[in-house]
Every structure is written in structure tokens, then in C-alpha cells.
Write a structure and sequence with these properties.
Blueprint (H helix, E strand, L loop, with lengths): L1 H36 L21 H6 L4 H27 L14 E4 L4 E4 L6 H12 L12 H4 L6 E2 L5 H10 L1 E6 L2 H13 L5 H15 L5 H6 L5 H9 L1 H6 L9 H5 L8 E4 L3 H11 L19 H8 L4 H17 L12
Length: about 350
């Protein structure tokens, strides 16, 4: 009897130990994944989370605690931009019932530079080709020296740059905490019109004509010709706008990256970006990033052709050809990008 009681007590202790171990492991895993993707919205000053490169200051430290006087003014500007994103996200999160947790699959737009401890979220139609070229120079370890010597098609080959979704959860977590994360944004409707002009008005983009143009013509053009139905090469901006605001398009899946919102591409309400550059001050902001990583003397961001750039006046002209209802719907679709990155509501919009 005593032996049986002793065995029962021993089994009870073992069960309690197993339960405590399992419970502790479960809590640890839950805490890990929550901290992994929980928004980190504000930092006052950089505190070293890990070891820097051989005693040198990294880009993140130089951004938050600049040692170079010429970088101090820019640091204030970028703090203001970070605060704008934080405030917009707070308002959005308070009014939205939608809650989601990021997965590694959401991180495919975040390009990683291990040597300089950088993460760049690329946004199509915001100088991303040139930024990918620059990232290839930074990560190439001497293979490239001049970004403009890299063909544009080569810059978009996925295997030429490593993205954050290719890492393990632990590696993703470490990099999100310790690397300088930046993105570049653009006035949302200028970016939209730029995407339309590039993908639907140029003959060489036949793949977009086939993939999207034929679908748009089939859905929204009455009495379309057989050639238009077959090739989709003459999509009108009004038809493109109708496609974007159609609930059926949302049901089809995520928008193409060239006209997807920055909010959906880079997840700035989930990921704390240390630096938000703007297309309107592209070279200044880009070269500031390069100075932060210590490459400013040997590497400069390529100049861009202003003559072919989609302007505000050009954008206003395109929007004058769509209905008031379409203008309102498009503004609602891109509203969060306007608010997060401090772009004013365009004066040409008819929102009344």
C-alpha cells in the first residue's frame, strides 16, 4: 500500500513538472511570435541591441545619435516623418476592426544588406530600379562599382538580392530589431498615374497588356473590338480606375505591386521604419542613407530623368477624365498612404 501511494505521489510530481514545462514552453513561443511581428512604432534614442561591426558605429546608431553635425538636421526631419507614420497608424488602428499578424510571406519586398545592416522596402514607381542597383553595389563586395552599369532588367532578377522572407523567424526578428529599415514613398496619385503610363501605354509592356489589359477591356468596355479583347494594349485610364475600385478586383486577390498601396507592400503600421525617404527629395534623402552607412564618399544615388517624370499637372489631367465617384473611391483606396506620408489631398479632386 505504501509503495503504491509512493508511486502515485511520484507520478503526480512528474505530471506537474511536465505540465509546468509545457506551459512555460507555450508561453515562451507565444511571447516570441508576438514580439516578432508586434509593431515597434517609436524609438527615442538607439540603444545597442547587439554587437556592432568590429567596434564601428552602424547606420542605425548614426541615424539616432549622429556624430556628424551635417547629419543632425536631417535626423530631425526624419523623426518628424516617423512621427507622422506613427500618428496615422494609431488613428487607423483605433478605427479599424481588422487585426492581422505578419508572416514571412509579407516580407518579400524587404531587401537585406548584411554588410551594412540595412533593410530596404522597395515600392515600384518610386525609383526602385535605381535603389535595387544601389543595393547590388552595396551587397556585391566589389563586383559592382557604378549602379548605372547594371542593366535595369538585371536589377529586378530576384536572385540578385536577398529578401527578408528568405530568413528563419529568429533571423527575421534579429534583423528587424537591429538593422536600419527604410523605404521611399511618392505622392500616391502621381505614383498611380506613373504606373498606368508605364504598364498600359508603352508597347513593350505586352505582358501587362495580356495579363491585366485584356481582363480590364473585357469587364469594362462595351462593344470592344476583337483586337482589344485579344491584346489589351489600349486600356484607358478611366477603365483602369474602374478596375481598381471594383469590389471584384479585391476579391481576385492583392493588387499588383505597381499599384498596390505602400501600406500593403511595406506594412509600416507593423514594421517600424527608421527612415522614410520621399521621391520629391529623392537624391537628397537617398544620399543621406548612403552617408549613414559610410558609403557617401564612393557611392552616389543616380540622377533621374525629370523630363519623363509623371508630374502633378499630368496627374490632374488624367483625373479630369474620370467621374467624381471614381475619384472619391480612388482616394479612399489610397487614403492611408496620403495620411501616413503627409501628402495633402490633391486640389484637383472633386470630393464634394
Amino acid at each position: 500500500m505504501k509503495q503504491t501511494l509512493s508511486e502515485l505521489m511520484r507520478m503526480s510530481r512528474i505530471c506537474r513538472m511536465l505540465f509546468a514545462t509545457c506551459l512555460g514552453s507555450f508561453i515562451l513561443v507565444m511571447f516570441y511570435f508576438q514580439s516578432m511581428f508586434q509593431p515597434v512604432m517609436r524609438r527615442n534614442h538607439f540603444v545597442v541591441d547587439g554587437c556592432c561591426r568590429k567596434g564601428s558605429r552602424n547606420a542605425l546608431q548614426e541615424l539616432y545619435n549622429p556624430t556628424q553635425s551635417e547629419l543632425s538636421g536631417a535626423a530631425v526631419l526624419h523623426q518628424t516623418r516617423r512621427d507622422q507614420v506613427v500618428d496615422a497608424c494609431r488613428v487607423y488602428n483605433a478605427s479599424s476592426r481588422k487585426r492581422r499578424v505578419l508572416t514571412p510571406g509579407d516580407l518579400k519586398h524587404l531587401v537585406v544588406d548584411e554588410d551594412h545592416e540595412l533593410i530596404y522596402c522597395y515600392v515600384p514607381k518610386v525609383a526602385c530600379t535605381n535603389w535595387k542597383r544601389v543595393m547590388m553595389v552595396l551587397t556585391g563586395r566589389g563586383k559592382y562599382s557604378d549602379p548605372m552599369e547594371i542593366p535595369s532588367n538585371e536589377a529586378h532578377v530576384p536572385s540578385n538580392l536577398k529578401t527578408l522572407n528568405q530568413y528563419s523567424i529568429a533571423e527575421i526578428n534579429h534583423r528587424l530589431k537591429n538593422y536600419l529599415k527604410f523605404l521611399f514613398v511618392r505622392e500616391p496619385f502621381e505614383r498611380l498615374v506613373s504606373a498606368y503610363r508605364n504598364k498600359f501605354t508603352l508597347k513593350y509592356n505586352s505582358s501587362f497588356h495580356k495579363r491585366f489589359g485584356t481582363r480590364i477591356v473585357r469587364r469594362y468596355r462595351k462593344n470592344a473590338t476583337q483586337d482589344a479583347l485579344l491584346n489589351g494594349a489600349d486600356v484607358k485610364f478611366k477603365e483602369f480606375a474602374e478596375y481598381l475600385v471594383d469590389p471584384a478586383t479585391q476579391r481576385d486577390g492583392p493588387l499588383n505591386e505597381h499599384w498596390q498601396t505602400v501600406y500593403q507592400l511595406c506594412h509600416p503600421c507593423h514594421i517600424h521604419y527608421d527612415l522614410v525617404g520621399k521621391y520629391e527629395t529623392l537624391e537628397e534623402d537617398a544620399n543621406y542613407v548612403l552617408r549613414l552607412v559610410g558609403a557617401g564618399d564612393s557611392l552616389h544615388f543616380p540622377s533621374y530623368a525629370k523630363s519623363t517624370r509623371t508630374t502633378d499637372a499630368m496627374t490632374a489631367q488624367f483625373f479630369s477624365n474620370i467621374s467624381t465617384q471614381q475619384q472619391i473611391q480612388l482616394y479612399q483606396l489610397y487614403k492611408l498612404d496620403f495620411l501616413m506620408f503627409n501628402y495633402s489631398t490633391p486640389s484637383y479632386l472633386r470630393l464634394d
